Amino acid sequence: MTILQFPSIGDPKESRDPWVKDSIYRLIKSSIDQPNGQLPPNGLDLPDENSVRNAEKIGWVAGARDGVAGVQVGERQKVLGKRAAELLGQISETADCAAASALYRLLKEESVLDFVDEALRCVAEKNLEAAPHLHEVALKLATEAADRGPVKFGIALLGTLRLRAHQDVVCVLGRHDEFTLFAAVALRNMLDDPEAAIWSLAKLVRGWGRIQAVNWLVPTASPEIQRWLRTDGFRNSVMHEYLAYIAATNGRLAAALELPLVEDAELASAGEIIDALIAGNAGPVEGIDQYEDAAKTCRLYLSHVKRHSPVLCHFLTTQLIREYIEGDERPSDQRLKQGWSESAQNSVRDLCANVLENEQWNGLVLSELNSGEDRAFHRASRAAEYLGRDTFECHWERLKSQPQEAARWYHVMHRANPERIDQIIELAERELPLNAIATGPTDALGIGPAFRPHGCLDFVLQDLKAFPGKGWRLIDAGIRSPGKRNRVMALNALERWESGAWPPGVRSVLEVAHSLEPDQKLRERFDGLLRKSK
């Protein structure tokens, strides 16, 4: 008996069969770039993208919801898991089409990560007959569904049933960050020695998929993988902080730096890991305060930097190390756990001073400030601040050349002062499409490709609070914007200004905005400004 054809999935509004030719699997497989085996660098929207975004209050990037939210285990999740296992039991025994439809609907409507472990645990306890019906439904969920929840469950079921013949299916789906976590776990369950397969998968993803695959790759005894972790594996498009600690510990960073010679590229990677470890202290992951070899690694890194030709990335990392030591106010017994004895601190301080006193840094900064490459320019801009150089004119010229780049408005406004603000406002009023922005309030947050001009306005508005009476046209556009962020920034400025700095006509604008505002909290803020204007 086969379950190749199911009826519709139960909702009378849903007429389509759950199995479709234009499935997520086929979309991903057809989108893989053949030379490098990766998906397009700008991402790949899944067929259910719109319905998922409409159902969620937050617009998650691929893999982020499962990565950030984690597993929610409670009574409801246990009930869902048992229900999924019951439906799988019916499918296993009779290829029950109604049970398969109900399972699909459950997997589509609920967060699979929350109950997949419970479901598969129950399946194992029931000792269900896997062939042929469970095998078939697992493969169909993975390869013929257009909704991400069923695909995730299908991947997990393929792994639990150890269907090694379908390893390629798992690896194809795992190339998309939304499914990498499930693919990595499936490979762990499916293969006797999954390390090589998970490593290959980790190298093909850059976002949350990279973070999740690396977490399932370690610990590792492979010198080759250890070197990859500390030279490239920690890099991801979310935050390097998520993998810096793993790269330092499982990648054996300190041991690598103990070698007498370290290649330039590997030393640069070591600096990036140290940067991310320091930044990680303020984040949701392990930072340098949890890294046992912190003092040793910093000392070894600086010893190599001292002997290498000056490179600005090392100048910046050295500054961060120095700031970290000076700002570390933990009790001495806590610092000693990471090797920060008084002599170790003094040694690293001396090395920092030795590196930073090099007279070539100024010349490198001037050279890279003239670079047309964004990363080099911003590195030089950060270094210039440490050296006391004013980079406003450099950022100003870059902004004028590309006024639709939001980050350039941020850097110019960050360096604004009373002498500069008028010319910045004049440029913003001339270059930003204020009429196209001021189309009326909505519930949209105001981020993403459709809100690029609004993003530029955001960075101007957020600093106008320091310049009372300046930029009313911009604030007016922000108040009328469909993006909440614009409206919040505009309100922040007006709330900071004394009402005497408000230009004529503000009250009438606020009255209209108050009447149209869909967000209760923002409406209350408009009400407060109206009272302030009396």
Structural notes for this entry:
The chain is an all-alpha fold and about 525 residues long. It folds into 3 domains: about 1-205, no CATH class; about 220-360; about 390-530. It is about 65% helix and about 0% strand. Helix 16 packs parallel to helix 18.
What profile does the largest beta sheet have?
A: none
Span between N and C termini? 78 Å
Mean pLDDT over all positions: 91
State the total count of DSSP E strands: 0
- How many structural domains? 3
Instruction: Report the structural category.
Output: mainly alpha
Low-confidence stretches: 6-16
Query: Helical element count?
Result: 31
**Quick one: overall form?**
globular
**Rg value:** 28 Å
How much of the residues is beta strand, in percent?
under 5%
Proportion of residues in helical segments: 55-70%
For the structure shown, list the relevant keywords.
534 residues; 31 helices; 0% strand; mainly alpha
How are the elements arranged and paired?
Elements: H1 24-31, H2 49-55, H3 64-69, H4 75-94, H5 97-109, H6 112-126, H7 133-143, H8 148-160, H9 167-174, H10 180-190, H11 195-202, H12 208-217, H13 223-233, H14 241-249, H15 253-257, H16 264-280, H17 294-307, H18 312-327, H19 332-336, H20 342-356, H21 361-369, H22 374-386, H23 392-401, H24 406-414, H25 421-431, H26 434-437, H27 452-464, H28 472-479, H29 484-496, H30 506-516, H31 520-532
Compact overview of the structure:
The protein is mainly α and 534 residues long. Helices cover 63% and strands 0% of the residues.
